[in-house]
Structure formats: C-alpha cells, structure tokens
Specification:
By secondary structure, this protein is mainly α. About 35% of the residues lie in helices and about 5% in strands. The chain is built from three helices and two strands; from the N terminus they run ααββα. Helix 1 packs across helix 2. It is elongated and about 90 Å long.
C-alpha cells in the first residue's frame, strides 16, 4: 500500500503544479518577494554592524577617536552690515494695546468689483469688515484682492 505522500493527484499533477494553477501569477511572485526580503534583512544587518564598528570588527572593539577637523570660530562682526539701519518703528511697550479687542458685532460689506484673476472655475468672494474696529474697508478689500490675485494663492 502506498503512503499518502507518494500518491499523485487524480490529474497527475504534483503539489507545486497545483499551487501554481490555483494561485496563478502570485505563485511566481512569492519566491521573488521572499528573496528580496531576505536580501533587505541581510543588508540592514550588515549596515547595523558597520555603524557599530567602523573598522569592521566586533562590537566590543574600542572605537578610534574622532578624526574630524576642528571648526574654526568665526569672529563676530564689529560693524553693522551695509543697509542695516535697525527697526523702522520704535518697539511697542509691553501691555500697550494697538488693536480693538471687541467691535460692534455687526458686519459691513465693502462695495466694489474686481477683474477675474487666474484660470479655472470662477470663484466669487465678498469682503466684510466688522463695524467699530477702525479698519478702512476699501484698503482692506484691496489687500484681499491683491492676495487672491497673486499666482501663489
């Protein structure tokens, strides 16, 4: 009597052939993936060993002293750079507020139109400012339009 391992399948194919027929192209790729994975693991292992010991010896060897050249210190500049005039406005005193903390709570629509900028679908926008904050709506709307018209926006 034959052992179950020795018997061929009813169609006469072996295990490998049945596996390939059942899984198709995946059966061909699987060995390649295994080889690539093993190669990557071996590469990582050798790189880790080289990092631990640059001389190629065991990790217990003494590391040689650093042989990098010392960086020279650059002297600090004694005169300001050309065109360096310092800040244009005096620094703001701590605690001095230069903005309105709370407006009137109502919005005002800034009137105006602008040319179409850029390409693509048309996007419309409305500029509104809060009443009571002391902002010129026309100047703010112009800044918004310049920002939206910029090619980077």
């Amino acid at each position: 009597m034959e052992s179950p391992r020795g018997r061929a399948s009813p169609s006469g194919d072996g295990r490998v052939r049945r596996f390939v027929r059942r899984y198709g192209w995946r059966a061909h790729v699987l060995p390649l993936l295994i080889v690539a994975t093993l190669g990557a693991l071996v590469d990582v292992a050798f790189d880790a060993a080289a990092v631990r010991s640059p001389t190629g010896g065991g990790a217990t060897e003494a590391m040689p002293p650093a042989t990098l050249p010392l960086l020279e210190e650059t002297p600090l500049p004694t005169a300001p750079a050309e065109g360096d005039l310092g800040p244009s406005l005096p620094p703001q005193a701590a605690g001095e507020e230069t903005y309105v903390e709370q407006g009137a709570g109502t919005l005002a629509v800034v009137d105006g139109t602008s040319p179409v900028h850029g390409t693509g679908p048309l996007q419309r926008f409305v500029v509104e400012t809060e009443d009571g904050i002391g902002v010129d709506g026309a100047i703010f709307a112009q800044a918004v339009e310049e920002t939206l018209a910029d090619p980077r926006s």
